[in-house]
Each structure stands twice: as structure tokens, then as C-alpha cells.
TrEMBL record:
EC number(s) on file: 5.4.99.60
Protein name as catalogued: Cobalt-precorrin-8 methylmutase
The keyword Coiled coil belongs to this UniProt entry's keyword annotation: no
Top-level taxon of origin: Bacteria
SUPFAM superfamilies reported in the protein's UniProt record: Precorrin-8X methylmutase CbiC/CobH (SSF63965)
Family under the similarity heading: Belongs to the CobH/CbiC family.
Keyword Translocase among record annotations: no
Keywords (A to Z) from UniProt: Cobalamin biosynthesis, Isomerase
Length: 210
């Protein structure tokens, strides 16, 4: 049986197919910029779901703010170890940045229990107390996104794509209304894999631009 076996060739072919399907099914669709295109196509590549053409929302300053933060060596904070695992940490480190997930940190476990809140919320509290530039990457926990917005503190950017039925859509609409530089998945869809894909799309685009 003849089939592609090299990972890079498989990925390249996948993106060709994605582009062809968009042209065939959405001939009038226009991407706002090459970076906007790169992010959406990588999310489609990750999920095989073309709904992302319509449901992925970007604030006017999201892409510029997120890319600048990465280039300045910011810290990314994720709400799950899955999102942390999916982000290209080697490439992020080349820009001087790192990614952290505090969901299982003993300080977070203690605070969540003492205050009667989720660990995702306590992890946000811990992250906001640290120095340096911050980008929050949420793919699973609406409570984390709500908590960040409750603090009303300036951050370098937010990738807000929690998936689910309880509070997920509402938390992302709150991000849309917040004025923070952010990318949001409107509605119920999302996930840690989507969150990581968005970050990786930015990293790969920045690498290519060097």
C-alpha cells in the first residue's frame, strides 16, 4: 500500500487539503492576514473541523500583542497539563519564554481547598502574583477564565478556548467583552489541543519570519 509516512510530508499535505476545501466550500471567505490564516488553519488541522472559520474570534490587537509578548520572552500559563504538553516548548525557549501549569502545585491545592474554589482559579491567582509578562492559555476551565477577568489586571494576552457546557460559552463571551487582547472560541467548542495549536501557530509563524 502506498501512503505518506514522513510526518512533515503528512502535515504539508494536510494543509494543502485544508486550503483546497476552504476554496471549494467557502470561496468568499477572506483571512484578515497571513497570521490569522495560519492560526485558523492550524486549529482546523488539529480538529478536522471547519466551523473554526466562523467561531474563532480575535480582538483587534490580539495577534500583535501575543506575538510581541512571545518575542519578549513572556511566561505562558496554561490551565491543563495537556495544553502545556502540546505547546512547542523548545521553540518558545528560543524566544526566551517558558510555559507553566500550576494546576497540581501544592500551593494551589491548599488554596483551593481553603477558599472553596477550583484549582484552576487558585492557579490563576498564583500566576498573577508572579513578575514578568504573562499570556494565559485556557482550553478546559471556564472558571480560570472567569477568575482572570474578575481580577481586572492587564496581561499581555489571553487564549480563551475552554470547551464544555457549563460556563464555557459564557466565559468566552466575557473575554470578548473585556477589552483584553485575546483569541476566543465562541460557543461550546474548544479544548486544550486547540489552545496549544493556537500558540504553536504563532510560534511557527514567528520562526519563519526570522
Amino acid at each position: 500500500m502506498d501512503y505518506l509516512q514522513q510526518p512533515q510530508a503528512i502535515e504539508a499535505k494536510s494543509f494543502v487539503i485544508i486550503g483546497d476545501i476552504i476554496k471549494e466550500t467557502r470561496p468568499d471567505y477572506r483571512f484578515a492576514s497571513p497570521l490569522h490564516e495560519a492560526v485558523i488553519k492550524r486549529v482546523i488541522h488539529t480538529t478536522a473541523d471547519f466551523d473554526w472559520l466562523d467561531i474563532l474570534w480575535f480582538s483587534a490587537d490580539a495577534l500583535e500583542s501575543l506575538c510581541t509578548a512571545i518575542q519578549q520572552g513572556c511566561t505562558l500559563y496554561t490551565d491543563t497539563t495537556m495544553a502545556l504538553s502540546g505547546i512547542n516548548k523548545t521553540l518558545l525557549a528560543q524566544f526566551g519564554g517558558e510555559v507553566r501549569c500550576y494546576i497540581s502545585d501544592p500551593r494551589v491545592v491548599r488554596r483551593a481547598k481553603a477558599d472553596g474554589i477550583t484549582r484552576s482559579m487558585a492557579a490563576v491567582d498564583l500566576a498573577l502574583g508572579e513578575e514578568g509578562g504573562k499570556v494565559f492559555v485556557f482550553g478546559n476551565a471556564p472558571t480560570a477564565l472567569f477568575r482572570l477577568l474578575e481580577h481586572n489586571m492587564p496581561v499581555n494576552g489571553v487564549v480563551g478556548v475552554p470547551v464544555g457546557f457549563v460556563g464555557a460559552a459564557e466565559s468566552k463571551e466575557a473575554l470578548v467583552a473585556s477589552g483584553l487582547p485575546g483569541i476566543a472560541a465562541r460557543g461550546r467548542k474548544g479544548g486544550s489541543n486547540v489552545a496549544a495549536a493556537i500558540v504553536n501557530a504563532l510560534l511557527y509563524s514567528l520562526r519563519e519570519a526570522q
